[in-house]
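Objective 1.3, modelling of assemblies. Example input:
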Amino acid sequence: MDAFGNYKSVISARIADKAVLKKVQDGGIVTAAFVYGLENNLLDGAVVASVGEEFRAVPKVATTVEEILEAAGTKYTTCPNLSVLKQAIREYGCEKVGVVGTPCQIIATRKSLKYPVGFRHMNDKIALTVGIFCMENFPYNGMKTIVEEHCGVKMDDVAKLDIGKGKFWTYTKWGETKSIKLADTHPYEQIACHVCTDYTAELADISTGSVGSPDGWSTVFARTEKGEEFLNGMVESGYLETKPVNEGKFGLELLAKLANIKKSKNQKEIDHRKEIGLPVPY
Amino acid sequence: MVTVAHVQLSSCCGCLVSLTDTYEKLLDVLGAIDLVYSQTIADAREIPEADIILVEGSVCLDDHHAMEIAQDVRKKAKILVALGACAATGGITRFCRGGQMSKPIHSSFSPITEVVKCDLAIPGCPPSPEIIVGLITAAIEGDMEYLAPFSEFAKNNTEACGCDVIEKVVNKSLCMGCGCCAASCPTRAIEMVEGRPLILNEVCIKCGCCGFQCPRIELPKNVMVLE
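Predicted structure (tokens):
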């Protein structure tokens, strides 16, 4: 099975700005990409997942570095990023838009570029798609139940959420850390995620995620020419620190293992749905 | 040279405006085709036989001229394309109910996809210039893979509505909340609430965009190839 999809190169990287590194989820690649894009006139806006009240995820068109920084960090709940895609071009007048999204959102973006039925004059204005690795997502109230009922933390007090090492981690604004076993979060998963067979955002220009790299670093795939050029630019202008990706047990091997688990598990669900006569889009 | 005709039935001409809204690409398109009929921009009076006939607008069942044209274009076209919401899904004309002067009897309107067999249908109000050019280019090149979703849409989606994304996606445990439907909607009839579409039915004009764009209703194979 092809675990990662096509790519040109893969590295481990993190954002060079140490102050920003403290605020980001892992290596801060998405933040670095959009900040680099805005500061170097390669982007004039980006569709991001910003934080709303009680750690809700709110799609937003960010046009300043401050807005990009505010949106750093994973929210672990659905954020309909694409819903503001056309807005970025019409209302904000952006001509070089960056889009960040989960694999399904990158797929949706690719479809809207290939078949832009309701997307007038958008094709040439999507300058970069950045995909983030995604195993599954939670509806807001699912995430809230995990955080409030299982971890005992009020949503208002959440500073950061993370999934890693088999656990769902909640970090509070007061410096506490709570966690529960990932197995206990399964009942709150969005069921529509169970027909998804893309773990590493295989259709993005650049894909990034935590698995495969040490804490505080991200694994980064450059998949398209555009993505590779953009990534090289980030490295050359000093926005990123890089090191070769670890091929071994805690590097690409682990990433491939997780990707294949997602693919085979969810392919079974797709086959099952077909068998009992339910529709699947593939 | 591929011959193309543009025929207007009950519509606003916005689909043709959309075709011409391709700036310099319009010249490429017009250079690659022979536009043999279009009442708005050329003076041919009789619809000739053509490789591709683009029909915009729905068919007034109470107007025998419209009914004759619908039959006529089916006979004369190698590829008959329902261009835009009115032709493909009925669009705004789904709300027609007659009673207005000077033809109070003109009360029934159907998309041409329901009146004669159409080969392809492009939803949207209007469809984007890029998709019209994309479809014409694919038709000229015989790229059947690219055209497949339009062929599918012509067969199975004549009664499009915002409810499609509820019935075919949310109700089928397929919606992952990407928000593509909301972005594609030309009237902002879709709000995303708790990561799911909420359809404002009184605002929906039944153009078919949301259902066509949803990657969880149809995901063409050619989308999944990184170029």
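DSSP finds ten helices and nine strands in chain B.
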